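DM from R.C. (forwarded with permission)

"hey, sorry to bug you on a friday — could you get me a structure for this? deadline for the figure draft is monday and I only need the backbone to look sensible"
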Amino acid sequence: MPTPILQRFTLPNGLRVVLYPISGVPAVGVSVHYDVGFRSEPQQRTGFAHLFEHLMFQGSESVDRMEHFGHVQAAGGTANGSTHQDYTDFYQVVPSAALERVLFLEADRMRAPKLTAENLRTQVNVVKEEIRLNVLNKPYGGFPWTVLPGLLFQTYPNAHNGYGDFTDLGRATVDECAAFFDAHYAPGNAVLTIAGDIDPGRAVDLVLRHFQDVPARHLPPAVDLSEPAPDQELRKEHLDPHAPMPATAIGYRMPDPLADLDAYLAHMVLCVVLTGSGESSRLKRRLIHGASPLVTDVSTGCGLFGALDARDPETFLCVATHPQETSTDRLLDVLDSELEDLAARGPLEEELVRATALSSVGMHRKHDMLLARTRALGAQEVLFGKAELVDELPGRLAAVTAEDIALAAKSLRPYSRAVLSLRPAPSPVPRPSLSGS
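My reply, with the result:
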């Protein structure tokens, strides 16, 4: 099937629109990505971006509380939202005939969500319960993404825990929510993506009908995320009262995907060489399938939430769960030896062929479903101004060379990483701090 022809345009109020017609798909995906995430929230208000995502489902000018879900489900579709480091997205997939209904719903809450004291109080409690469920009362809850940034990074936007501190969440006011909406949920700070069974001309008409009268608003300056990489190895322990065995998370700084995408992609293929090709991958062969296994599980990855899901600075991760007898230093020795070998000699030919093929096929598979492709198009547009990257990635990953991987391995140096050691804690222990700083 030929690659769909992507179209984009911008409304006078600043809303960027991406159209992506796909033939033979009897459904349409719609997403709205706002250029605001964990790293945009104000100090002393950790968790605010995630809290606000919840508030956006509590009704709007013409839609009552939680009715957004009801309208989408009544049309035979699904809807949800999510908060990331640098964006928040709201998305749905519906039968093609329901496109206008979804556009009306998204435009209505972009225009005026219902920000009331009751809605705020309810959603603060919902978010607190989500944190209890996913972090405080769960083995390895939030590990490592809620705690590793506080070790690897130094500035508040990069280092704090985006899930939020209970005290910060409880202090949020309706006035602060209104100010956050005005600053970050303006049409000029958003990307609307429509993909699937669409007629582009009709889609343009519907977008104009529902979004062109959403008032433009002044946008705040972009958050300054810049900070130097560490010049020494950083170490810290994290206690987990529910974990059955220790774990270690190692974080390195990634290349800037906007300034050096090829280097970033080489790190993605390096992940496959290290842990992503089954028993033959280097770290799994050494750490799990050797004569004396050192870990029960090991993985590597680009990004706290996945590859190309945030702007620079971002994190290259290696995470292992292991018995008490396996020391952090023993684990680091194996990792360093494999990185040094790859830096000096590059991967073997069969490793390269396998890793690039798996990377390319994996990217095709990741975006195969309509919802995933719709969200990916919007994310790449809001982060990097290039939704087309979704279609280009499989070919670019397949073209990564042995030399590229060697350079990626060489960049992951012991003197510029963070090593976070999770230790099972005797119960009871004080509730872990969620400040992330």
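R.C.: lifesaver. The first helix runs from residue 48 to 55.
me: no worries. The chain has a mean pLDDT of 95.
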